[in-house]
Design brief:
Blueprint (H helix, E strand, L loop, with lengths): L4 E3 L18 E3 L10 E6 L11 H6 L4 E6 L6 H4 L1 H13 L1
Parallel strand pairs: 3-4
Antiparallel strand pairs: 1-2
Length: about 100
């Protein structure tokens, strides 16, 4: 039987190195069976509160079946500034 473990010290790359809102642990195992669902990461290139390189790209790299959608010139409020494209991307993702 395969099971995932949770470790706070076993992470090779910590996606939340100093954030006070960071999870205290992350599921880790040597198999993609730990992540059972596709992951959609949506991120703007001009998000100053959560920069693309240190959040969106890292988050999408953690899951084997992740899709990263990058919105050019978008900040943190995609649901306001890019509502139509965001809705289209969400619909496409949930119907695939």
């Amino acid at each position: 039987m395969h099971s995932c473990t949770t470790s706070t010290t076993d992470r090779p790359t910590d996606p939340w190195p100093s954030s006070s809102t960071a999870p205290t642990s992350a599921p880790r195992c040597g198999s993609s069976r730990c992540c059972r669902w596709p992951l959609l990461v949506l991120h703007g290139t001009h998000d100053v509160s959560a920069p693309l390189e240190t959040t969106g790209r890292r988050a999408s790299a953690l899951a084997p079946d992740a899709t990263l959608k990058v919105y050019e010139n978008a900040g943190h409020g995609l649901f306001v500034t890019h509502a139509e494209q965001l809705t289209a991307d969400l619909r496409e993702f949930v119907t695939r």
